[in-house]
Amino acid sequence: MGRLIVVSNRVALPRRGEPTAGGLAVALKDVLKSNGGLWFGWSGETTKTPTSGEIKALRYQGIDYATIDLNETDYKGFYAGYSNNILWPLFHFRLGLLEYDRRQSEAYRRVNRDFAKALLPLLGPDDVIWIHDYQLIPLGAELRALGARQKIGFFLHIPFPPWAVFSALPGAEVLMRDLLAYDLVGVQTHRDLGGMVNCFQDGLGLSPDEDGGIRTSIAGTERRTQLSAHAIGIDTRGFANTARKAINGPDAVRMKASMGERKLIVGAERLDYTKGLPHRMRGFGALLDNFPQHLNQVTYLQVAARSRNEVASYRDLRRELDQLAGRINGDHGLFDWTPMRYVARAVARDTLAGFYRMADVGLVTPLRDGMNLVAKEYVAAQDPENPGVLVLSSFAGAAEAMDGALLVNPLDPEAMAEQLDRALTMPLAERKSRWSSMMQGLEEQTAERWAEDFLAELNEQAAAREPSLAA
Ligand code: ADQ
After folding, report:
1. Cα torsion for 130, 132, 137, 138, to the nearest 10°?
2. Which contiguous run of DSSP H or E holds residue 140?
3. What's the pLDDT tens digit per position in 290-311?
4. Mutate to test the pocket of ligand 1, among 90, 269, 301 (most ligand atoms within 8 A of CB)
């Protein structure tokens, strides 16, 4: 049995004094520990000299970490440029925000090649490689080009649009062909799977076989790429425990005291245009306009951790939110009531868990989202005796399985206001039954289970491939 090699752009290196990492890092570390594994990726450091591929190695709690530094210009083109300013809007259906630049496309390819060159010497013949997310789509093909024959799986954490959208990317076919280097390509939901299959059919003229795999013959070698949906989860028990403790912690106690008898609506995310923050603020404004019985009876807390400040569209979003929050408070606030509390920074994980538990409504309304872990964390954090209500965008991957949520179209502020009113006035019995059906799903579909299922399927695929290779 070989090792498991996890590859992601950023490696969750253990650092002393850092807050507990989120669900994904914990889940991956657990599978790495039980498989005796290695986590490979970018170190977080850039250099002025060309990328050397020199490995920095570290062993911590049974896991090996290997990282490389990247040349500053390459990194800008690859990450801030191609990954975040081209692929991120493309995969989230936001073609108007896509700023194509051929040099960035070259940097993306170059960095993926540098990753492949640095990783190859670390691989044993029986290792299984699991590559994560849109920054590293060509890595499997680059590894194959260097001769790698190991089982390689890829998981896309963000949505997969259909070809009508995807084809806007110059070189879209090349990126689709890159996916064929993998033995398994996983996406979050059935909707994303539909998008990917549509891209293979309309973009490359390739249709899946009856088991959901694409068969190709590349340079005389027969290969098969299995396509499937694997919804990521969270550490449900762990998060529920954190929330139960945090509710009596100093931050939750202070927050509670500042609220009085008012109800609380909570939202939390990275400050990102895919998360629909302006639309959400407008929805809250519509609640106060259209349902005046809630005036002075409810507070909306929005924590939005700043991210990707180097990209202009993120700076524009920040300005828009500052204005909107000011407008809502100016229009509706009283000298002793601030309707909306807007905090543009990250909050410690346990503090956030306490706020979720205290909140009567979790408001999670992205315009598009691969999954959305906040929706799952909000539900896991609830008090079973008095659970809050999840108001969720139907465009979040999480909506596919979270049947107890009140679904909204985030583009419709009046509809959002109606669902908020419904959530704020929902009887206890209905809250409990909606919550327990979602919680049951979360207890089954944890982050750990997601990783185990993906890897089990990857192992099956590679085994099934051998006879056809021999034939
Ligand atoms: P993200 O876009 O980052 O992830 P999400 O799944 O919601 O989105 O995860 C965000 C994480 O950050 C959550 O664990 C949340 O608690 C935490 N967080 C959010 N706001 C915070 C704040 N202000 N302070 C501190 N912590 C905060 C991408 C995809 C998602 C997919 C995940 C995992 O875009 O669709 O669900 O990967 O696959």
Report:
1. -40
2. helix 139-145
3. 999 999 999 999 999 887 777 7
4. 269
CA of 293 to the centre of ligand 1 (A): 33
CA 288/CA 417 separation, integer angstroms: 8
Per this entry, what is the length of the chain? Answer: 471
Whether 467 shows a pLDDT value over 60: the answer reads no
Amino acid identity for residue 175 in this structure: L
Q: Which residues are catalytic?
A: 157, 369
Classify residue 467 as exposed, middle or buried by CB count within 10 Å of its CB (0-12, 13-18, 19+).
exposed
- Percent of the chain at pLDDT exceeding 70: 96
The strand ranges marked E within 230-343 are 263-270, 298-305, 340-343
CB 7 within 8 A of CB 139: yes
Task: Kindly tell me the sign of the dihedral angle through the C-alpha atoms of 130, 135, 136, 138.
Answer: positive
DSSP characters over 19-88 = PPP-HHHHHHHHHHHHHT-EEEEEEEEEESSPP--PPEEEEETTEEEEEEEEEHHHHIIIIIIIIIIIIH
What spacing in Å lies between the alpha carbon of 345 and ligand 1's midpoint?
A: 13
Can you tell me the distance from the alpha carbon of 425 to that of 419, in angstroms, rounded to the nearest whole number? 10
Question: 71 with 50: CB under 8 angstroms?
Answer: yes
Q: Which residues line ligand 1 (CB under 6 A)?
A: 22, 24, 157-158, 232, 268-270, 303-305, 346-347, 352, 369-374, 377
Q: Of all atoms in ligand 1, which is nearest to the CA of residue 373?
A: 6
* pLDDT tens by residue, 89-104: 999 999 999 999 999 9
Closest CA to 370 of 168, 195, 192, 130: 192
d(CA 378, CA 202): 38
Spell 253-269 as b/e; 16+ CB within 10 A means b.
eebeeeeeeebbbbbbb
pLDDT of residue 10: 86
For residue 127, pLDDT over 50 is answered with yes
ipTM: 0.98
pLDDT of residue 471: 41
As a whole number, mean pLDDT of residues 180-209 equals 98
Ligand 1 binding pocket mutation candidate from 10, 374, 395 (most atoms within 8 A of CB): 374
Give the pLDDT confidence score for residue 260 in this predicted structure. Answer: 93
pLDDT band at 19 (very low <50, low <70, confident <90, very high): very low
Sequence-ordered list of residues with C-beta below 8 angstroms from that of 175, at least 6 positions apart, any chain: 137, 138, 169
Angle between helices 23-35 and 447-470 (to 10 degrees): 50
Contact 129, 151 (CB under 8 A): yes
- Position 12 confidence tier, pLDDT thresholds 50, 70, 90: confident
Please name the residues in contact with 235: beta carbons below 8 A apart, sequence gap of 6 or more.
23, 26, 27, 446, 447, 448
